[in-house]
Design brief:
The complex is a heterotrimer of chains A (about 290), B (about 450) and C (about 270). Chain A has a two-stranded antiparallel ribbon. Chain A has about 290 residues and is mainly alpha-helical. In chain A, a hairpin with a 7-residue loop joins strand 1 and strand 2. Helices cover about 75% and strands about 0% of the residues of chain A. Chain A has 13 helices and two strands. Chain A is globular. Chain B has two domains: about 190 residues, D-Maltodextrin-Binding Protein, domain 2 (3-Layer(aba) Sandwich); about 200 residues, D-Maltodextrin-Binding Protein, domain 2 (3-Layer(aba) Sandwich), CATH 3.40.190. In chain B, about 40% of the residues lie in helices and about 10% in strands. Helix content of chain C is about 75%, strand content about 0%. Chain C has 13 helices and no strands. Chain C is globular, with a radius of gyration of 23 Å. Classes of the chains: A mainly alpha (about 290), B alpha/beta (about 450), C mainly alpha (about 270). At the B-C interface, helix 1, helix 2 and helix 4 of B face helix 8 and helix 9 of C.
Chain lengths: ~290, ~450, ~270
């Protein structure tokens, strides 16, 4: 007797369903409970109504951390796209050792963020960091990469770009290679310059890749944590305090579980909103 | 499409039942995993579980006294382990509290953590145990007892050891600028700072400073710069009293102003000197606020000809009387998971006997928190053999621990945030910075 | 010709920018402590002192084994369970199949920030804090893997499965003996992505593991970098970072094509 396909299907998806209920559905539901409570784990939970939201609304530090995260994205994403497109465009030409170049650019992508951050801590060091030594050797002044409050977040964005850009070079390469060559040939016949070809053929054709890169780096940027955790601890003047780092501190430095859950809940809403908005823009631009 | 299905066709018969069986097994497996945890421990009421700090000297000390206890009391043995290495011993203890796997006796709890644990109801109120108060009165003077008393009037901790924070300085560097003794007041410190500031390699950037404060905002960093200076300037005043914020006062303003001047004059570096060689050892900074643990570190790493001394932290110019500092107290607590608190107390009492305090001092170079430690002839041999520890022993009479406040970490966090703005970067006036810190604390209290 | 030269020059500058820091890190970790602050290329002498100190100060080999165990178990789980669910979603018809598919799509858009705190509390309640389970169980399945497998299985001809079924194969045999050997690219992609993500994850271990002997390698080294145990010795941190980078870089040197392609597809699929 064969067991019906229904039951076999249920059997196969059962592990996932359990996993989903336990590690996704329950936490989401429980976060709805937590946001109304004050709780430090060791003492009993205490109902505080909308107290957490009230505190959130007045928590300038949290909004500073949101602003910092947005600031990071605003620097990181354009920089990433420009650099990645630049190198992808170079690699898309006829040349020897393309695989080698691609592999070298990709190296920082695979290495743990912890390694990259410890390494860049040395590069950024004000006193004897490699970057400032280079600047001095070039006869320029030192830069307070992580010390200057206005520069610290851009420095972290620079580092993140260095780490991730290899992946986006590869994505753009895939996109560039999908552009049919006859389009370029036609343009050449009409005497288009290299820039015109790039502007009017390449860019529209790889539009989907651009937006993919935007969405991917947005999601990645919203989870910024280990870089400021190791490099700056959120300073100077809280200018590199990312939203996740702030949630982490509230939750695991001070054990405000209810409040940290409220922050996480609110932050997740912000993320979803941003991603939905981006998707809207994507769809409109692609159909245009 | 053909390929080697034959290989597996041979043993048909009942394969179709696998999925169900497997999924059942998976479900059961996960269920078992979930229920198998949080095992209920059967505890022998005549046995004591004891955790110590995990620094090697304290481990050795714990090992010896446990062996001795077990020799004397074979019927109620102590099972001992160092607190598991972790992110911080506080986090490990918290995880243990949550999992209800706390030891009976824990001897290394930072005094500032006790109030929060006491509020959560996981500590035994020791004053309810017979003989506890007598031991306390014998060991501590009234200010220490007051410090150890919780807001509910009970005492949940035995004051055990301290490591007073003092000013470590590089003797040669001060001689080089013509000073035979270290700066004692704010103006002396400032004028020494001016002379100490130098660009030794001529690249146009200052690379020798009077000192370095950790510029990281992590709350506990302020225990080693702002707080000792505040205690010194205020003759040991608290930061918070019950539900009241009291740190927004003249002493705090003076400390903030003093340090702010140092940063404004570029006498202290703003560069986080992490991820580089120790600037004190390389002679790039002349002073450091630190505790006796620095001695063994310096002895291990100091370059040839390096000379260092300890002195009290600087005070305002018109300061009168003794100079207080922060003592970084670590205390002993008994968790209420203990099946037999009286027995646990008996062990604690044994651990802090005079003889064991001396042993502790000799083995760890940390000071037991008992009154008249330095004047007591019983401990004199040690100090004769370890003259490096004498400044700390003298200082031990004038140390403060922490206020009994369940959200003490946030108090320090709030101060630290404003310390950065008002002192290190000087972008907010000192008065405003302290008022903002006070406001944030009031919001939390 | 000149343009070609410029092109290669620019690419070479790119190579230097992306790889020289790693080279410098390796050299600095081998240099005597005093030379690090002025090191540019090669130290005057090779010293293993920094590495010796790392090994003395932190249980790094233990952490390496922990990482290997955790990432291995997570990867195995994702491959086995992911392909099972992917198989059911692509090849079995049952009521609620679409619902599950929608749930999958939903979880992929759900930001982890919302579940971070409650998931930690779940670990507390289950008593999993400071156990391997906390590191493994929540990651044993993920929507990305399932969807990858579903898509890939859909592209495998139905004839193959029908033939096996006629020969009396059950679903599990079809999955593991027929579909798996024909899905190497999907297995490699999902395997590499899962393993790498797990290997490099650091926020979750920081939250659920407090005891040093259970820490994963990136966690242990991140804490080492921010804590005081390096005793302000520069080379020690760099040596620890080098040790953390080494296994993945070695794997990458041999399988770089798979790494790049896997990560590119994972990007394109989302």
């Amino acid at each position: 007797m064969r067991i019906s396909q229904h039951w076999r299907g249920y059997g196969f998806v059962a592990p996932y369903v359990i996993h989903f209920l336990l590690f996704v559905a329950f936490p989401v539901a429980f976060s709805l409970v937590l946001v109304f409570h004050r709780w430090n784990i060791i003492a009993p939970m205490e109902f505080v109504g909308l107290g957490n939201f009230y505190r959130l609304a007045r928590d300038t530090l949290f909004f500073r951390s949101l602003g910092n995260t947005l600031m990071f994205l605003l620097i990181h994403i354009p920089l990433q796209i420009v650099v990645a497109l630049f190198f992808a465009e170079l690699l898309n030409r006829r040349l020897h050792g393309r695989g080698f170049f691609r592999a070298a650019f990709f190296l920082p992508v695979i290495v743990s963020g912890v390694v990259v951050t410890i390494l860049w801590q040395r590069l950024f060091s004000f006193d004897s960091g490699l970057l400032n030594r280079l600047l001095i050797a070039l006869g320029l002044g030192k830069v307070g990469w992580l010390v200057d409050p206005d520069l610290a977040m851009p420095s972290i964005a620079l580092m993140a770009t260095w780490k991730n850009v290899g992946l986006y070079i590869v994505l753009f390469l895939v996109g560039l290679q999908s552009v049919p060559s006859h389009l370029y040939e036609a343009a050449e016949l009409e005497g288009a310059s290299a820039w015109q070809k790039f502007r009017h053929i390449t860019l529209p054709m790889i539009n989907p890749t651009v937006f993919l890169v935007v969405v991917l780096s947005t999601i990645g940027g919203f989870s910024l944590f280990i870089e400021p955790y190791i490099l700056t601890g959120g300073g100077p003047l809280n200018r590199t305090l990312s939203a996740v780092l702030y949630i982490y501190k509230e939750g695991f430095f001070f054990y405000h579980m209810g409040y940290a859950a409220t922050l996480g809940f609110f932050f997740a809403l912000v993320i979803m909103l941003v991603v939905v908005l981006q998707k809207r823009v994507v769809e409109r631009n692609v159909t245009l | 499409m053909h390929f080697g299905v034959a290989g597996i066709g041979g043993n048909s018969g009942g394969f179709h039942r696998y999925p169900k069986r497997i999924s059942l097994a998976v479900v059961c497996g996960m269920f078992l995993l979930m229920t198998a945890c949080a095992p209920t421990r059967q505890r022998n009421p005549n046995e004591i579980i004891f955790w110590s700090s995990n620094n090697p000297y304290e481990i050795e000390f714990a090992r010896i006294i446990v062996a001795e206890w077990n020799r004397r009391h074979p019927q109620s043995p102590v099972r001992y382990q160092p607190v598991p290495e972790g992110q911080s011993s506080e986090e490990v203890i918290l995880a243990a509290v949550v999992g209800r796997t706390t030891p009976d006796v824990y001897a290394n709890m930072w005094q500032g953590d006790v109030e929060a644990f006491a509020r959560a109801g996981v500590l035994v109120p020791l004053d309810t145990l017979p003989g506890f108060l007598d031991v306390m009165y014998q060991r501590c003077d009234s200010s220490v007892i007051q410090e150890a008393t919780s807001q509910d009037g009970h005492i949940y901790q035995v004051p055990w050891k301290i490591n007073p924070i003092m000013m470590l300085y590089n003797v040669r560097l001060f001689q080089a600028i013509g000073m035979e003794r270290p700066p004692a007041t704010y103006s002396e410190f400032l004028s020494a700072a001016e002379k100490m500031k130098a660009d030794t390699d001529g690249d146009g950037y200052v690379d020798r400073w009077i000192g370095y404060l950790n510029v990281n905002v992590t709350w506990w960093k302020r225990l080693f710069d702002f707080y000792p200076l505040y205690l010194a300037a205020s003759h040991g005043a608290p930061l918070v009293q019950g539900e009241r914020v009291v740190f927004n006062n003249r002493a705090a303003r003076r400390v903030f102003r003093f340090l702010r001047k140092l940063y404004a004059g570029n006498y202290l570096p703003r560069d986080p000197m992490e991820g580089r060689q120790d600037p004190f050892l390389t002679g790039q900074v002349a002073t450091q606020f630190t505790g006796p643990w620095a001695v063994s570190y310096l002895e291990k790493f100091k370059p040839e000809g390096f000379q260092y001394q300890f002195a009290p932290v600087p005070v305002p110019d018109d300061h009168q009387g003794p100079i207080f500092t922060y003592g970084d107290p670590k205390n002993i607590v008994i968790f209420n998971t203990s099946p037999n608190p009286r027995l646990a107390w008996k062990f604690v009492r044994f651990m802090i006997e005079k003889e064991n305090d001396r042993r502790f001092l000799e083995m760890t170079d940390q000071l037991p928190r008992r009154k008249n430690l330095f004047r007591d002839p019983y401990f004199q041999t040690y100090f004769r053999n370890n003259p490096r520890m004498i400044p700390f022993a003298r200082q031990a009479r004038y140390v403060r621990g922490t206020d009994g406040c369940p959200v003490l970490k946030e108090v320090f966090d709030a101060i630290s945030q404003q310390f950065e703005a008002g002192v290190i970067y000087g972008v907010v006036p000192v008065e405003v910075a302290l008022e903002m810190a006070a406001r944030r604390v009031r919001l939390i209290l | 010709m000149a343009r070609k030269v410029i092109l290669y020059l620019v690419l070479l500058v790119g190579i230097v920018v992306f790889t020289y820091p790693f080279f410098w890190m390796l050299m600095a970790s081998l240099a005597p402590e005093k030379e690090i602050e002025s090191l540019v290329l090669i130290p005057s002498q090779v010293s293993l002192n920094s590495y010796r100190q790392v090994v003395e100060k932190i249980p790094i080999f233990r952490a390496f084994c922990n990482s290997l165990l955790v990432s291995g178990a997570v990867t195995a789980g994702v491959l086995v369970f992911g392909s099972m669910v992917g198989y059911a979603l692509s090849r079995l018809r049952f009521r609620g199949r679409n619902l599950i598919f929608y749930i999958l799509l939903f979880t992929m858009t759900l930001p982890f920030q919302i579940t971070l705190i409650p998931q930690y509390i779940l670990m507390v309640k289950l008593g999993w804090v400071d156990t391997y389970l906390a590191l493994i169980a929540p990651y044993m399945m993920n929507a990305f893997g399932i969807i990858m497998f579903r898509q890939f299985f859909l592209s495998i001809p139905q004839d193959l499965i029908d033939a096996a079924r006629i020969d009396g194969c059950g679903d599990l045999q079809i999955l593991f003996r027929i579909l798996w050997p024909n899905s190497i690219p999907a297995l490699v992609t999902v395997g590499i992505i899962t393993f790498m993500n797990s290997w490099n994850e650091v926020l979750w271990p920081l939250i659920v593991i407090r005891v040093e002997k259970l820490m994963t390698m990136p966690q242990l080294i991140a804490l080492f970098a921010v804590g005081g145990r390096a005793e302000a010795q520069l080379g020690v941190k760099l040596a620890a970072a080098t040790m953390l980078a080494l296994p993945i870089v070695l794997a990458y040197l041999f399988f770089q094509r798979y790494f790049i392609e896997s990560m590119a597809t994972s990007g394109l699929k989302e």
